[in-house]
Design goal:
Blueprint lengths: L4 E7 L5 H14 L4 E5 L5 H12 L4 H25 L3 E5 L2 H11 L4 H12 L6 E6 L2 H11 L10 H17 L4 E5 L4 H20 L1
Parallel strand pairs: 1-3, 1-4, 2-3, 4-5
This protein binds thymidine-5'-diphosphate.
Thymidine-5'-diphosphate binds next to helix 4.
Length: about 210
């Protein structure tokens, strides 16, 4: 075991991860901990270059899966593992559950192949906690339409996002000890109270 803490934040586009990631950073920083907030695909120069391709170029599902895992491998080796070894709290804006949800659920790509890639790339590394911001697909679409132009994933229809949600639900059911489902339909202050309660229950003793 390393000394750090690896927390990931997941959910469909528009579920409201970003706001709460900043609050999470604050919770740990205020208590004197070094915090690294990072995102996937991305987090290193190479992985950010791969992100641009994945988000904007047409490609088949296997190519997409290989690129997100290639980005993840670089990110793990260059940034996440060294930070955890140094005792840092690493907060990941998406990680492998997004691959199972988007490429597996959304695109219908083989979960067996994804599990093989996960094993190769992560060598057993998993987050200690994954916060899944669960929001119905139609509500997330309404929120997205209000704020930004869509990328390759965000332009998908509601049925795609319903499959992504099912993908997250399956991962959550398979690894219940790691997952916490957050009801993201509520107003931001109430969503944050749910997140804070989870963090205090799980890490209050050791990190509070
Ligand atoms: P996102 O993290 O939502 O960033 P932003 O808020 O800047 O749009 O966007 C990343 C997109 O990439 C999102 O639509 C999900 C997708 N994605 C995958 O399809 N597979 C993956 O493994 C990851 C990490 C992300």
């Amino acid at each position: 075991m390393t000394g750090g803490l690896f927390i990931t934040v997941e959910g469909i586009d528009g579920a409201g991860k970003s706001t709460h990631i900043e609050s999470l950073r604050g919770w740990f920083a205020q208590r004197g901990h070094a915090v690294l907030v990072t995102r996937e695909p991305g987090g290193t120069e190479l992985a950010e270059a791969l992100r641009e391709l994945v988000l904007h170029r047409p490609m088949d599902a296997l190519t997409e899966a290989l690129l997100v895992f290639a980005a993840r491998r670089d990110h793990l080796v260059q940034r996440i593992e060294p930070a955890l070894a140094a005792g840092t709290v690493v907060i990941g804006d998406r990680f492998t559950d997004a691959t199972f949800a988007y490429q597996g659920g959304g695109r219908g790509f083989s979960l067996e192949v994804l599990a093989t890639l996960e094993g190769w790339v992560q060598q057993g590394r998993q987050p200690q906690l994954t916060l899944w911001f669960d929001l119905p697909a139609d509500e997330a679409a309404r929120r997205r339409a209000a704020v930004r132009a869509p990328d390759r994933f965000e332009s998908q229809d509601v049925a795609f996002f319903e499959r992504v949600i099912a993908g997250y639900a399956a991962r959550c059911a398979a690894m219940p000890e790691r997952f916490e489902r957050i009801d993201a339909r509520a107003e931001p202050a109430s969503v944050w109270r749910q997140v804070q309660a989870v963090i205090e229950r799980r890490f209050g003793a050791a990190w509070g």
